[in-house]
Amino acid sequence: MAWGYLVIAGLLEIGWAIGLKYTQGFTKLDATISTVACMILSLAFLSMALRTLPVGTAYAIWTSISAVGTAVLGIVLFREPASWGRLACTSLLVAGVVGLRFVSSH
């Protein structure tokens, strides 16, 4: 269950990272409310995951899910560059997450 909480926390962090772009400096009320809700829920789910998962592993995976998801959505939604170098480095993050999952004892 902790791994599921961690994935949800990571997805919610993607939501608030992308949501920040849509708040336009916190001038858009609906986007700001959604973004803050994602922040709170992301931390809540991370906290639940940390009940059983090691903090170093959980934090690394949480931030990596967010980094990869935000980078991909940045490419798709905002037409950010999709260079080979950027995609290769993002792939390394994915490999790290998979590796941490398999070496974790929980």
TrEMBL record:
Transmembrane segments: 33-50, 57-78, 84-103
Homology family: Belongs to the drug/metabolite transporter (DMT) superfamily. Small multidrug resistance (SMR) (TC 2.A.7.1) family.
Protein name: Molecular chaperone
Cellular localization per UniProt: Cell membrane
GO molecular function: transmembrane transporter activity
Keyword Ligase: no
Keywords: Cell membrane, Membrane, Transmembrane, Transmembrane helix, Transport
Membrane topology value: Multi-pass membrane protein
An annotated GO cellular component: plasma membrane
Alphabetized InterPro entries for the sequence: EmrE-like, Small_drug/metabolite_transptr, Small_multidrug_res
Presence of keyword Glycoprotein: no
Name of one Pfam family that matches: Multi_Drug_Res
UniProt xrefs under Gene3D superfamilies: 1.10.3730.20
